[in-house]
Every structure is written in structure tokens, then in C-alpha cells.
Write a structure and sequence with these properties.
Largest sheet: 2 strands, antiparallel
Helix content: over 70%
Order of helices and strands: HHHHEEHHHHH
Radius of gyration: 32 Å
Strand order of the largest sheet: 1-2
Number of strands: 2
Distance between the termini: 80 Å
Strand content: under 5%
Number of helices: 9
Shape: rod-shaped
Amino acid sequence: MISLPITPMLASGALEFAFRNATIEGKTTVGVLLVLSLFSWTIILTKFRQLYIARKWAKRFFLAYSATRDPLDIKRKGEDFEGAPAYQLYTRGADELEYHLKNNPKTINGEQRISTAAFEAVKVTLEEAAAAEAMALEKGMIVLSTAVAGGPFIGLLGTVWGVMETFSGIARANSASLTAMAPGVAGALIATVIGLLVAIPAMFAYNFMVTTIRAITQELDGFATRYATQIDHVYVENRNLEEKIADAFHRIEQGKTWVPAAAELASPQTS
């Protein structure tokens, strides 16, 4: 059996040599890059887990929602899809709808409905919930974009500074030999290497996550529109002009002082 020598990954001997010969400025730059890398990897691992859970539970929620025609059915059954962003939107909308059904009901043919004004409040709640979920998904992405854009430049700063220090030392010593230059140049280049090692994983992770978040956000917007439409069909008071006029005369005949506004009569809502 032939045994093959194993070369240490990332040329660790060269990295160690370069770090030992780096200037104080270069070592400081490497330290900053390592801190940035720590934050970057924390966001990468956290967001991967968050997006995995969001996609997994979203599929389950949409399957359950597609199986019913009543916009409040899932809430009344007590089903829980906590990890799905769409479920958070659904819960906010359902809570707002139930509030208006309880406090501002409209009875049509013996069934409880809500007014068009209350429905507008429900739609605003859905829009706010969709925006809140999108912001939650994007939270922390600024760290990755900073690592992608700033990591190489921070490393380049350390390299240029280290090369400047090396040449300044050579000039003061009046020695321009390769042996005198090599340690300083190697110590300067390590900052760029570390900067690229910080930026490259962050770049791939950022591109993947941005694409995934955009897909989930579009899915949320589509669900918000679909959910609002179903609420409109099932729970919103949709009466034509004749029905509103008849209801107004009925109230007047019963001795009630309320008279519908002209704008309400003139702007019938049709289903």
C-alpha cells in the first residue's frame, strides 16, 4: 500500500510564518477580519437554520390551508405552524377578523359579516404582517454584505500598510536583498489572504440566502392577496344598492334615527 503525504490545508506553515512576520498593523487587521468572520459565520449558520425551518413549515401550512375554504378554519381548529412566516401573517389577519366579527358585526341572512371599512383594517394588518415577516427574514443580512464588500478591502489595507512598513525598513537598513524583503512581504500578504477567506464563504451564503428570502417574500405577498380575497368572499358584507336602500327604509320604518350616508348608497360593493 502506497502512503501519500498529506499537505496541510491552506498552507498552514506559510500562514504561520507570514503571521509571525506581520507588523502590528497587519496583525490588528487580521484580528479585525477574524472578528468579522466570527459574526459572519454566526449569521450564516443562524440564517440557514431559520430559512430551512421557514421553508419546511411553510409547505405544511400551505397544504393545510389549501384543504379548507373557511379563512378561519385553521385558527378555530387550533393547528400550529409556528415556523412558517405565512402562518404568522395568517394569525395576525385572523385575529383582526375575529375582533371585527365580535365587536362590529353585520348580520346578513342570519350570518355574521364585517363591513367594508373593517375589511380595509384587516388588509392593512395583513400588509403590516407581511412587511414584519420580510424584515425578520432579512435581519442580519447586513453583516454578510459587509463581509463580502468590506473583507477584501480591509485585508488590502493591511497588506498595503505592511508592504509600506517593509520597504521603509529596507530603506532605513540600506539592504534590498530578497532575504530581507521576503518576511515583511509575506507578513503583509496574510491580511489579503484572510480578507478573501472571510469574503468568499459570505458571498456564496449571501447570494443563496437573498434568493431564498426573495422567494419567501413573494410567496408571502401572494398569500396575503389570496387570504384577503377569501376573507372578502366569506366574511365581508357585500350588498348591492337595492339591498342597502331597502335596509335603510326598513330602519326608518322601525323608528331608528340612523340614515345611511349618501356615499355609502352611491358606492355599492359587489362580490
